[in-house]
Design goal:
Blueprint lengths: L20 H11 L6 H13 L2 H17 L1 E2 L6 E2 L13 E8 L2 H8 L6 E5 L17 H10 L6 E4 L5 H16 L3 E4 L15 H9 L2 E5 L2
Parallel strand pairs: 3-4, 3-5, 5-6
Antiparallel strand pairs: 1-2, 6-7
């Protein structure tokens, strides 16, 4: 409790009790978003209040549609509004190569370079002993099964994991498992800064990383 008797924390703002209940609820919801404090939440709430009804309801509709319509592709676990994502269903993609990433946002960053025309696989995270993330918590099993079910049609798996301690550890684990499955394994070139994230790398760096990928062994 602070000296003036008011308890500070996310979700409690000065004078918040003076807002009508719907406004207060909206502020509290915005304040729950990552990186949004109470003041920012208030500004967002007032932006919605000042918007015309059509714009405000369009925002609400977009949020509802995302939660009701977007799912993970049953093949690669990318975000999709159908059973199979647009990349997996694109017949023009190179189906002999699969690029493995941690999250859908990493896939989007790589796709924006226009330098890669193969398929993807999203792990939905990375191995982390400290956080209790084990192989079974990721889509590693689905990846191995996908490789085996391809009966040799998938010739190379490219590891596009973030260059962090956890990412490198995940890469080593995958290289071993994929090598056992008889597929060639490579990784993106280290034009990517150590400790960085694919999401924030520029297109030129990502393009160089794709073109300069390095073999990690495996295959026949």
């Amino acid at each position: 409790m602070s000296a003036n008797g008011r308890q500070h924390g996310k979700g409690s703002g000065s004078g918040s009790a003076a807002y009508p209940a719907p406004v207060r609820a909206l502020i509290e919801r915005f304040a729950e978003l990552p990186g949004i404090g109470v003041r920012s939440a208030e500004r967002l709430a007032f932006h919605v209040l000042k918007s015309d009804e059509e714009s405000a309801l369009a925002l609400a509709g977009a949020i509802e549609a995302v939660k009701k319509s977007v799912r993970h592709c049953r093949v690669c676990y990318n975000l999709s509004d159908s059973d199979v994502c647009s990349i997996c269903s694109d017949a023009s993609r190179d189906r002999s190569r699969v690029l493995v990433v941690e999250q859908p946002k990493d896939l989007i960053a790589l796709e924006q370079t226009g330098m890669y025309r193969g398929l993807y696989h999203v792990l939905m995270g990375r191995l982390s002993a400290l956080d209790g993330v084990e192989p079974e918590d990721l889509t590693i099993g689905a990846l191995i099964e996908r490789i085996r079910a391809s009966e040799g049609r998938i010739e190379e798996v490219v590891l596009g994991l973030n260059p962090t301690v956890e990412g490198d550890g995940t890469g080593l684990y995958l290289a071993q498992k994929l090598g056992e499955a008889g597929v060639a394994v490579s990784r993106l070139a280290r034009g990517l800064p150590s400790g960085g994230s694919l999401e924030f790398a520029n297109k030129a760096v990502l393009a160089d990383a794709i073109l300069g990928r390095q073999s990690l062994g495996g295959g026949s």
